[in-house]
Fold this sequence. Notes:
By secondary structure, the chain is an alpha/beta fold. Helices cover about 40% and strands about 20% of the residues. It folds into 2 domains: about 1-160 and about 195-225, 3-Layer(aba) Sandwich (Rossmann fold), CATH 3.40.50.720; about 165-195 and about 225-265 and about 285-290, UDP-galactose 4-epimerase, domain 1.
Amino acid sequence: MRVFITGGTGVIGSAVIAELLTHNHAVLALARSEASADAARKAGAEPIAGALTDLGVLRAGAAQADGVIHLAFSNDFSSPEALARGVAEETAALTALGEALIGSRRPLVTVSGTPWIAGRASTEADPLPLDGPVGGRGRTVNAILGLAEQGVRSSSIRLPRTVHNNGNGGFAGLLTNIARQSGVSGYPGNGTQRWPAVHALDAAVLFRLALEHAEAGTAWHAVADEGDAVRDIASVIGRRLGLPVQSVAPETYGPLGPIFAADQPASSAHTRQELGWTPTHPSLLADLENLQP
């Protein structure tokens, strides 16, 4: 299969490209810079010059592919306005990709976060949040899944709060970066809230499985660790970096503060059973041991 991918040079995207190539797929990778294009070539993909805002490039990439995987996001969480711009940019990009595939029966695999449900681990059957800091992403993903009625084999991989590799990536990576900058490995509130996690190499396998096999309009959970207490995550970070560990105000994390403070475990039992997905790589707490001071 010839696959067009956005966000192919990040922690997750680079793992997805390697997984696709290992299973005899060809990859076209959106590249917004020459450095990204070089990285794509070195990984074995064919770069297509353009940014997520270049909607014509996205439509052309989708048109010449047998399937599409969308991973790109601005990842600017510095303010509510920056986050909103990133969501709007992604919405326009996904809309363009979806329109290019209408009637084709080709797969479009997109991404969201796992939802949080009071008192229990969320499942694939639970709805995405449609309000709050990331509500716009939920509404967009729902619209893409709705394209199943217009001949697109759309599916969504719900990623946990941390997708990691060698101790880097995801919300745990943000905690690490903030710890390095502030000199304190902090956690919001009492730190008992739980975050799900997955190794990037395990997540990559699920993206491939969804591309190849997922039915139209379906959502899947890329969850290996159902929920690690944030205080435990911060404790490993603090120990590896030689920093004190303590509670900090949720406002420390800007527009993500309410999400960071929420208890949000998630299950992947349905995904494992239906798609035969079996995570095999290190857990988050084990992987964080790779952090260098």
